[in-house]
Records
---
Amino acid sequence: MDIYIALVHHPVLNRAGDVVTTAVTNIDIHDLARAARTYGVAGYFLVTPIEQQRAMVSRIAAHWQGGGGAALHPLRADALSLVRVAATLDEAERAIAGPDGPRPLRVGTSAWRHSTTVGYDALRERLTTRPEGSAALLLFGTGWGLTAETLAECEAVLPPIEAIPGRAAYNHLSVRSAAAIILDRLLGARNETLPGVDR
Amino acid sequence: MDIYIALVHHPVLNRAGDVVTTAVTNIDIHDLARAARTYGVAGYFLVTPIEQQRAMVSRIAAHWQGGGGAALHPLRADALSLVRVAATLDEAERAIAGPDGPRPLRVGTSAWRHSTTVGYDALRERLTTRPEGSAALLLFGTGWGLTAETLAECEAVLPPIEAIPGRAAYNHLSVRSAAAIILDRLLGARNETLPGVDR
C-alpha cells in the first residue's frame, strides 16, 4: 500500500493556540523529501493555501530535477521528484485517490494523545489489512501542530514521540526531526516488512 | 551514563571524497539541540576549526538563553542550553572527560558498514556495562560524512539507516533526519529503559 506524507502549513496552531498559516521553508522541502525517498513514501505533499508558495515549491523541485540539477545531484533529484503541492488537505487526498479511487486513510501526528491515538504496531496492522490499491496519508503539522479539527478528521493519530518513559516529556522536536523519527518507527527496517507496501 | 553528541564540520568528506570543512548552519544548531534535549543527551558539541563560527554558535545559544529569549521561548532555551563548541573532536572529548575522568566512548555513524559496525542492541548493551561516571560521544558528520580516519578511531560505529530490507538503499538522509532517527533508535522509549542513563 502506498504511503503518502503531507506537511501542513494551514490550518496549524501557533504558540498561542491561534489558527495560522506558516511559511514554507526550503529546508523542509529538502529534508522531508529525502526522508520520504528513504522510506519508500509514494509522494510528499506540501499543503499551503498561498499560491505563490506553492509555485515556489514547484520551482524548487523542478530546479533540482532539471537537466543541470539532476546531473549534478541525482540523489537530490530523486528525492525532489516526490514533491507535490496542494492548497488544502482535501485537494491532496483527491490527487492521491484519482478520479475513481478511494480516499486515503488519513493518519495524524501530534505531540499529545487523543481518543483516536493508536500505536505504531496497531497502525501497521491496519495498513496491511487495507484493500489493494488504497493508500494512507500521514500528516505533519508545522508551527505548533495540527488543529484539533484536522486531528478529529483523522481515522488514526500516532502517539507523541516519547523519548524516555516515565520522565516529564520534552515535547519540542522540530517537524523535520519528528517526521524522520515517525517514518522510521512506522516503516523502518527493524520491523517486519509490510506485505503490500510498495517499495 | 551520559550520552553526548557531536556534529562534526571538519574533517568531513564532500561529494568528491575530498576532506573539507563545512559551514555551521543555524538550523543544525536548533534541530539537533531540540532532539538532544528530547532524548536526554547531556551535551551537544558543534565541532568546527573556524573560530568565528564557534563564536557564532555561542552567540546564538546565548541569545536564546538570555533574558528575553528564555522568557519568550523556554523550550528553545532549554534545548540550546545543551549546545557547546569545540575546535576538534579531541577538545570535545577532553571537555567531557574533565581533568581526571576517562575519555568518552567514541561512537561513529556512517552511511556504510565498517569492520567496527555494531547494532543498536549491542551498543546499548555495551553502554550499560560501562563504569559509573563514564560517557559516550556519538558523532554525526556533515557534508558527505565522517572521514575513514575518524571512523577508524571510533570504538564502535552504528549501522547505516536501512529503511527497507532487501531493497537498494537510498542513502541520502539529511544529517538532521539521520541524527533524530539514530537518537530515537538508540534511546527512544520503545526500548527498555537503560539503567544508569542519566535523564
---
Amino acid sequence: MKHTPTSHHELGPLLAFGAHPDDIEFGCGGVIAKETLSGRAAHFVVCSRGESASHGTQAQRLAEAKNAARILGAAIEFADLGGDAHFEVRAVHALKLAGIIRRIRPGVVLVHSLEENQHPDHPRLGQLVRDACRLARYGGVKELRRAPPHAIGQLFYYALTPEAEPVNVAPVLIDVSAPEILAAWTAAMKAHASQAASRNYVDLQLTRARYCGLRAGIGHAIALFPGDPLVLDSLAQAGRGARRF
Amino acid sequence: MKHTPTSHHELGPLLAFGAHPDDIEFGCGGVIAKETLSGRAAHFVVCSRGESASHGTQAQRLAEAKNAARILGAAIEFADLGGDAHFEVRAVHALKLAGIIRRIRPGVVLVHSLEENQHPDHPRLGQLVRDACRLARYGGVKELRRAPPHAIGQLFYYALTPEAEPVNVAPVLIDVSAPEILAAWTAAMKAHASQAASRNYVDLQLTRARYCGLRAGIGHAIALFPGDPLVLDSLAQAGRGARRF
Amino acid sequence: MKHTPTSHHELGPLLAFGAHPDDIEFGCGGVIAKETLSGRAAHFVVCSRGESASHGTQAQRLAEAKNAARILGAAIEFADLGGDAHFEVRAVHALKLAGIIRRIRPGVVLVHSLEENQHPDHPRLGQLVRDACRLARYGGVKELRRAPPHAIGQLFYYALTPEAEPVNVAPVLIDVSAPEILAAWTAAMKAHASQAASRNYVDLQLTRARYCGLRAGIGHAIALFPGDPLVLDSLAQAGRGARRF
Amino acid sequence: MKHTPTSHHELGPLLAFGAHPDDIEFGCGGVIAKETLSGRAAHFVVCSRGESASHGTQAQRLAEAKNAARILGAAIEFADLGGDAHFEVRAVHALKLAGIIRRIRPGVVLVHSLEENQHPDHPRLGQLVRDACRLARYGGVKELRRAPPHAIGQLFYYALTPEAEPVNVAPVLIDVSAPEILAAWTAAMKAHASQAASRNYVDLQLTRARYCGLRAGIGHAIALFPGDPLVLDSLAQAGRGARRF
Amino acid sequence: MKHTPTSHHELGPLLAFGAHPDDIEFGCGGVIAKETLSGRAAHFVVCSRGESASHGTQAQRLAEAKNAARILGAAIEFADLGGDAHFEVRAVHALKLAGIIRRIRPGVVLVHSLEENQHPDHPRLGQLVRDACRLARYGGVKELRRAPPHAIGQLFYYALTPEAEPVNVAPVLIDVSAPEILAAWTAAMKAHASQAASRNYVDLQLTRARYCGLRAGIGHAIALFPGDPLVLDSLAQAGRGARRF
Amino acid sequence: MKHTPTSHHELGPLLAFGAHPDDIEFGCGGVIAKETLSGRAAHFVVCSRGESASHGTQAQRLAEAKNAARILGAAIEFADLGGDAHFEVRAVHALKLAGIIRRIRPGVVLVHSLEENQHPDHPRLGQLVRDACRLARYGGVKELRRAPPHAIGQLFYYALTPEAEPVNVAPVLIDVSAPEILAAWTAAMKAHASQAASRNYVDLQLTRARYCGLRAGIGHAIALFPGDPLVLDSLAQAGRGARRF
C-alpha cells in the first residue's frame, strides 16, 4: 500500500504461465491463438517439466511444449519452482516469477485459477503469479532491482476443468470460433502426444468450449476470469451478454 | 427455451428503468450523461410518481423528473405498476414493461439490482425488468403482439446504496471523471429539489463514485453489474483491471 | 430513498412476529424471556391460527398461544395474512404489518429469517416484515396515515431450524443460560400442548441452544441474525467472541 | 413445524414437473429413461401448453409432449398455472400442485431449479413445487382434504442451462451412458419437432451430459441437485466421487 | 491432467487421518464404528502426539489413542508432520501421506475439513491429505515409486466443530443411531481420559449428532462433506432427504 | 481441540498488528484513537520496515511509525517475519506472534483481513495472527513456555481497501465522527510523509469512512469484521442497525 506502481497500460505482450508442459494449451490455447493471429506477441512460462506424470520422458515433454508454443505463435521459457508435484507458496518462487514479469513487461497475464482442482500445483501457481504481479510493482524489492517496476494491465485466470472455475466471479467469454483458431488450438493440444493416454482430455476441452459457445449463441468460446473489475470507457465496450437460451 | 429470439445487437438506444422519480439519476446518472454526451439516445421509464415519500407533491416530483431527464439528454415516460411502495412481482407488470422494451428496442437496459436494500420497490422492479427482457423475446406472447420480438444486448444492474451491490458478480466500472459528465450528473441529482431533506444523498453518491474511482486509479467511476457474462472479441476489449492500490 | 425517517432509537418495546401460534416461542422464546425479565415490554403478533396443521383446533391453539405469551410476559395480538399455509408476498400484507409497527413503535423487531425452510409461510413472513419496517418510515404512504412514521432500531431474524439459519451473516449469540430464563422458555414451548405429536421439537430447540452455548463457552444461547450491520460506540460494546473450542 | 408428516419412504413413483411441454425431456430426460427402463413408474406434470413460444401450435405441442412421454415410458398430465409466460408464486398454484402430489404419492419429485435463468416460469415452478411438497404433508389444509397427507422421499432440482445450476449445492451425477438410455433420451428431445428452430438445444444438452460424464470418468451423466442433505446408511451407499481428471 | 490414474473403486479399506490423537474419534468416530461393525477394515493415521496440548503426557496420549482405535476396531499408526501446533502445507508432508495412501490403498479417505476452525493444524492436514490423494495417482512421482499409483473412491471431510463445517457443500448424513454404534463411539471418545478437562467436548459431539439426527427424523447422525460430487447409478441409491421438520 | 484455554475476558489492552509501518494507521487508526482517547491501552506490532516500498528509507519509515503511534497514544514494537514482501505462513512466525500475545495479554486483537488484496503480506499476516491467537491458548507449546497461556476476548479484522473486506461476515461499524478522533487519525496517517506519493491514500480512507458513516446515519465510521460471532448479554447491547437510507 505504499508502493508506487509504474503505470503502463498500453497493449503489451501476453504472458501465460502453466504449471506443466501442456497446461497453457489445454487451459486457454484458443485465446492464445486468437491473440497471436491478430498480431499480439505471446510468451509462455512453463514451471515444471511434467516429470511426475505417468507418461512421457522429460525430453519428450519439452519437445512437445516447444512444438505446441510454436504452433500457437508464442515464445516459451521454462522456470523451476521445485519440480512437478512439489509446488509450494514460497516468497522465493513469487519473486522469481515477478522477475520474469519485469523482464517481459506484459499487458495481460494468464494463469491457473486459485480454485482447488485436479492438481495441487495449479492453484499454487495461480497464487504465486497473483503475488508476483503485485511484487513486480514495488520499487524497493531487492531481488528485483535488475529491471524497473512494472504494473500489468489485467490478470486473467483460466480453468483446466470445471472444478477450477471460480463460482463468484463472472467470466468473460472469448470467441474462438474461427476455423483457423480452432485448428491451431486443437493442433497445439495434440502436440502433447506423450499424454495420449488422456486423449479424451482434448475432447473435454473442445466440448467445454462448444458448451460455452452455445450459451453465448456462437460457435466455441473460452471463459476467462478477471482478477480485478474491468474499467470501461463506455457501455459499448462491454459488448453484449452471453444469453442465447 | 423454446422461443426464437430476434437477434439484434447493434448499438440500440439505452433504456433505463427507475422505481421512483429520482432513482435513475442517483443510481447511474453519470453513466447516462456519458452515453448521451457521446451521442447515444437514452430513454427513461419511471414506474411511480414517488407519492409515498415524505416530501414533495406528485406534480413537483414529475416536474423534477422531467427536468433531470432533460439535463441528462434523455427522453422520459411514466409507467404505473400499482403505485409507490406497492410494487409486486406480477406477470401483468412484467408484460407491461416487456411491451415498452419492444417499442424502444434498446441495446442496453439499466435497472435496480435484485438485492434487498432500502426500498422494497427497488429489487421488485429489478426482477420485473429482468423478466420483461426475457418475455420481450418470445414470439407467441399474446399481450405483446403489437410489436415484433426484441432481444436486448445486455442488462446492467445499478445499485443506489452499497447494500444493493451484488456480492458475487464482479462489476464493470465506468469512468465518469470528465468534468462535463460530473457536472451534468450532479445537476440532475440536484434537480430533485423536493427531496432536499435527504440532500446528503447527493453527497453519498459522489462519495461512492470517488471511492470507486480511487480504487481504479481514476477520478470518479460508477459500478454496474452485468446480468450475463460479457462476450468479448479479444482481451484488448476487456481494457485493464481496477487495481490502483 | 426519498423518504424521511422519524429517527427514534431509544429502547422501545420488543415486537416479535410469528407465522403460526407457536413460532415465536420455539424460535426465540428464550430471548423474549430474558428481555421481559429485565423489564422490557414485549408484544407478539401471530399471523395465523395454525389451522392447516395436522393437530389442534383453532380454539385450542389460540388459547395455547395466549398462555405462552403470558408465561413469557408478552402482550399478544393476531393478524390475518390469508390463513395458515396461504401466505403470499403482497403489498397489502406488508402495509398491514407496517401499520402495527407504527402503532407499537418498537425498538427491536424479531421475525423468521428469509431462508427457505420447513414451512413456506416462514420466509414469506420474514420478507413481509422486512418490507413493513421500511414502509413504516415513509411519510406519504396513504394507508398508514393513521399513525406517524416510525424507524425501528434493528431487525433481528430468528431461525426455527438449522436450514433457516442464514449462511452469510454472522449471528449474535444471546446468553439464555439463567435457570429462570430456561424455565420460562421451556414452559412457553410446552404450553403448545396440542402440538405434542412433535414434542421432540422442544428437544430440538433446547439441543440447539445447548449446542450454541457450548460453542460460546456458556450454558445455553440463541443465535439471532441482524438485518443490518451493528453500529457500536466502542470495541468494549462488542463483548467477546464465541470461541470456546 | 406443527404438522405431522405421513412418513412414507418406500420407492414410490417418480413425479416430474415442467413449465413447458419440452422442459422435462431437455432437463432430465436421460434420468427418466434410466428409471423407467429399470421398472420404476414415472409421471409427468406439464404446467403450460407452451403457447407463448415463437413456434408450434398448442395442438402440435401437446401431441409432441405426449409422444415424448410415451418414448420415456411416463404417464403425462397437464396443469394450468395461468399460462406460459404468466407464472406467479401464488398459494392457489402451490395448493393445486400439492393436490397432485397427494394423488400420485411419489417417492422422488423432480422440478426446475430455483436459480433465475432463461425463462421466468422455470424458477417460479421450482418454488411452487418446493412449497407444494411441504403443503402436501400438513394434515389440516382444507383444500387438500380429498387425499391423505404425503411426505415425499427427496426433491431433486434439474437445470436446463448452466445458469440454472445452483452454485452452492454439490450435485449428484446420474450415469446415463447406456446406449438404450441415450437413445430414448435423444428421441424424446427430438419428439419436440416444432421447436426445431432451436435444434442445437438438443446439441447443448448432449454436450452438457458428455461434459459432465467426462468429469466423472464415464460416458454421459446428468447432474441433479438434491433439495435436502442425503441420509445414507453407509459410506458404501455414497458410491464414488466424480474425479476423472 | 497428464497423469494416468489406476482405476480401483471396489470397496477398499477406510483410511482416516487426524491431526491429534483424539481428532478422528471426536470428529467421526460414530461413522468408523458403523463401518467396522459392518465388517469393513479401518486404518487410522494420527499425525502428531498432541504434545502441545495443555494436558496429558505423550505416553498417555499414545496409549489413549491406541485404546480408542481398538474400541472402534481400527488399526492405527502415527506420522510426523513437524509436531503438534507446527503443521505447514509442505510438499514433503503431502508426499509422505501419499505414500501411506499407496500402501493402504483405501476406497474412502476421511480427514478434517478445510475450513479454519479451532486449531490451525486441522485445515492444514485437510489440505495435505487432499493433495496426497491427488499425488498418489501420478505415476511419475519419484518419492512414491515404492508402491503403484492408487486412485481413491471418495474423500470425505469431517468437522470437529460447527465452524469447521463447509457452508457451500451439502453434507451427507450417516445414521449412527444404533445403540452399539453410539456405545462404541462414546467409549472411544472417553478413552481420551487425559483430556478430561474438556469433558463437555464429548457432550458437544453427542449433542451435535442428536441435533443432526433430529433434522433427519432419526436418532443420531454424523455429517460428512464429500470432496467431489457423488456419482450414482440411480435415484434409489440417493436414499431420502433429511427433512423431518 | 484438547487444549485448556486460560479464560480471561476482562478489558485487556488493544493489540494491533500491521504488515508494514503504516498499515495499522490507514486500516483502523480511527478506532485506535477512539479507544486510547477513552483510556484503553493500545500496543502496535509492526512486522516489517517497509523496505520493499518504492519510497522511504528504513530509518525514515521507523521514525514515521513511532511518531504515528505516539499521535494515537499507542506503544509500538517491531517484529521480523522475513522482511517486507517476503511473508510466508510458517509455524515459526505464528509462534513468534503468539509469544507477543502471551506477553501483552490483550482483550482485543486487530489485524489485516484474510482476503487477498493489494499486498500479499496482508492476508498472510492475517492468517499468522489468527493462528497465533489459537496457539497462545495451548498449555503445552514448548516455544511459548516463557509466559502462561492467554485467551483473547475477540479478534477483529480490518481492511485497507474494499477488496480486503470479507463478503460473508457482517461488519460492526465503529463511530469515529468526533472531531478529536478524526484529527488524531488524520494526523497519524499524514505522519507517514515518505509515502506522500500515494497521498490520496489518505483521501481514500477518509472517503471510505465518510461513506460508511453515511450508510449508518452518522459522520464517519470504520468497519471491522469480527473473527467469531458476538456473544451478547441482551439485545440492548447490540445497539442499532446501520440503516440511514
